[in-house]
Write a sequence for this structure.
């Protein structure tokens, strides 16, 4: 188990991580989600004692990282795939790591086999593709057969086959009772792998919830309708006890109903409909809404169209720099 | 922003803790010896080690033989002088290789990002720095001492001169080896502080050459003392002291260069340790 308490990191005037507190529990895949620059990597580096926190602490099974006897056997980490010496062979990169923690040399071949790099074990890691580099990084993380595994954006740059492989690997590892902590900036990716979710934005905790709860809370399903007899339809809906949201473009959105129900209601009241459809806001929209105020690098949306696509979601205030850094 | 929405998953499920993975690999207390084994694998598994040390050996032997050959062709015989000091020129050139390897031993880890993997596996900064220093120091000491002895033997065999005393032999071999290894260790400490290979190598070459070059241009009489100190304590003159052919005739003598190098290296290594402990990686 990893316990993060009041973790803070300041780079000059800028606060990268701001009093972050959460726990990563064993036996599940915990997703660590946030937009670029939210402080995910800094948090992970502080967990591994690579960055020194300005305040707060991280405990791994109750101990500070520096107190761990042979840390590679407690916690394996993939921070970035390039954290290896390119002039050294894959085998030797893993061998020196194994020796520093007295891990049996036979383990090196085992993990190379697990990640499927046996054939290129003697080749310099400099020539590896992004996917192979990522696999080598994962081999290094698995070397000590640790109870806790930490992956920073493991699917970045992988092909579909590689992404599929990592997803299954994480599930298998969690199934063995290990603690898995994995960061991403893609909600859709997390929805497939993580059971628990920690969302941060501008270094602050935005959500700490189970994935099931997050989905239930945030993936709103509703019916959208357009009618020339708008007032009449609104009366009919309120009579029927439906909650109606009037969208900007004049359409009506009815939460928690089905299109059949609304269609029949319209027929009973003789209301003409021009549009009737079931809608579902995606998790991606929910995530973007949650982090909208804390997105560090806003893009200007040239065409003026809402980039979210979620009908009910007005979208984050893209391009409005006025609230930057104050909202969170 | 509203307060974060929090809901923790239950820790216990059916009376059993969820996470109960126990690795079959036993955990013991890692030691400096483990770190040394790891660093030995690192230094022998990159090509730069073979290249820098190989070039050093070639330079020391090649230049040594050339100088001895040149002297043997000239009319001026060695007479009452020993042939041993002729090794100086090769050592001076070889020092550049030792500096390069010393810097690369640690700075290349910053360049490649390997340092993050290294410090994750061994969070004790002191142990990492000590292991690197031990492996590098012993490797360079052995190779330079053996090479210096080989060069000395060749030169003495090629030329007729006064037979060198045992003291002279020890200083020209072990003394030179120690001085070179310490110079390399100083470079390693500088590499750890600067964390950039090219920058640290340039700085160290400056440290070797600049004092002498600066002293040459100090014409003003008010700077005579500074000029003399720069001449006496510049690295090339200290190497010459080990060969008993001091350029100045004053200043350090005997084993002094080794002690001076050890003191300077210890001081910079202290800073390097302090910085490594305090800085983010």
């Amino acid at each position: 188990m990893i316990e993060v308490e009041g973790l803070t990191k300041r780079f000059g005037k800028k606060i990268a991580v701001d009093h972050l507190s959460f726990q990563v529990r064993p036996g599940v895949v915990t997703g660590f989600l946030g937009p670029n620059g939210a402080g995910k990597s800094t948090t992970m580096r502080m967990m591994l004692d690579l960055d020194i926190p300005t305040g707060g602490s991280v405990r791994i099974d109750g101990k500070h990282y520096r107190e761990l006897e042979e840390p590679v056997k407690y916690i394996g980490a993939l921070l970035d795939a390039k954290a290896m010496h390119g002039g050294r062979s894959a085998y030797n990169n893993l061998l020196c790591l194994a020796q520093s923690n007295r891990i049996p040399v036979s383990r090196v071949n085992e993990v190379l086999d697990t990640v499927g790099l046996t054939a290129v074990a003697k080749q310099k890691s400099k020539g590896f593709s992004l996917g192979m580099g990522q696999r080598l990084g994962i081999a290094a993380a698995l070397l000590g057969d640790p109870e806790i595994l930490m992956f920073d954006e493991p699917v970045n740059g992988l092909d579909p086959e590689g992404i599929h492989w990592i997803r299954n690997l994480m599930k298998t590892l969690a199934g063995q009772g290990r603690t898995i902590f994995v960061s991403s900036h893609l909600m859709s990716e997390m929805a497939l792998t993580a059971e628990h979710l920690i969302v941060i934005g501008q270094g602050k905790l935005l959500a700490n919830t189970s994935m099931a709860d997050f989905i239930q809370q945030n993936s709103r399903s509703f019916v959208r309708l357009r009618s020339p007899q708008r007032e009449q339809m609104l009366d009919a809906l309120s009579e029927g006890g439906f909650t109606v949201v009037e969208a900007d473009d004049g359409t009506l959105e009815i939460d928690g109903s089905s299109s059949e129900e609304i269609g029949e209601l319209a027929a009973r009241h003789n209301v003409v409909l021009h549009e009737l459809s079931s809608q579902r806001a995606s998790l991606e929209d929910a995530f973007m809404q949650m982090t909208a105020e804390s997105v560090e690098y806003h893009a200007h949306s040239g065409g003026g169209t809402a980039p979210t696509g979620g009908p009910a979601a007005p979208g984050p205030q893209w391009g409005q720099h006025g609230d930057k850094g104050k909202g969170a | 922003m509203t307060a974060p929405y929090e809901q923790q998953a239950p820790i216990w499920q059916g009376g059993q803790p969820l996470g109960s993975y126990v690795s079959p690999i036993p955990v013991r207390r890692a030691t400096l010896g483990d770190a040394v084994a790891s660093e030995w694998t690192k230094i022998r598994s990159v090509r730069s080690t073979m290249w820098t040390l190989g070039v050093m050996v070639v330079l020391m032997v090649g230049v040594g033989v050339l100088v001895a050959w040149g002297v043997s062709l000239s009319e001026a015989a060695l007479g009452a002088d020993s042939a041993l000091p002729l090794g100086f020129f090769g050592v001076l050139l070889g020092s550049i290789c030792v500096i390069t390897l010393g810097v690369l031993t640690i700075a290349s880890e910053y360049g490649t990002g390997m340092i993050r993997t290294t410090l994750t596996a061994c969070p004790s900064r002191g142990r990492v720095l000590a292991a690197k220093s031990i492996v590098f120091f012993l490797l360079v000491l052995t190779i330079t001492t053996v090479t210096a002895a080989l060069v000395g033997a060749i030169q003495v065999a090629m030329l007729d001169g006064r037979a060198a005393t045992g003291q002279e032999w020890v200083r020209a071999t072990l003394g030179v080896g120690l001085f070179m290894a310490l110079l390399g260790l100083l470079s390693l400490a500088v590499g750890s502080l600067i964390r950039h290979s090219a920058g640290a190598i340039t700085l160290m070459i400056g440290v070797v050459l600049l004092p002498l070059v600066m002293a040459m241009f100090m014409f003003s009489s008010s700077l005579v003392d500074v000029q003399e100190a720069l001449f006496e304590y510049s690295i090339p003159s200290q190497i010459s002291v080990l060969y008993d052919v001091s350029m100045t005739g004053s200043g350090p003598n005997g084993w002094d260069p080794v002690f001076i190098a050890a003191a300077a290296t210890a001081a910079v290594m202290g800073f390097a340790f302090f910085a490594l402990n305090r800085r983010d990686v």
Remarks:
- The radius of gyration of chain A is 24 Å.
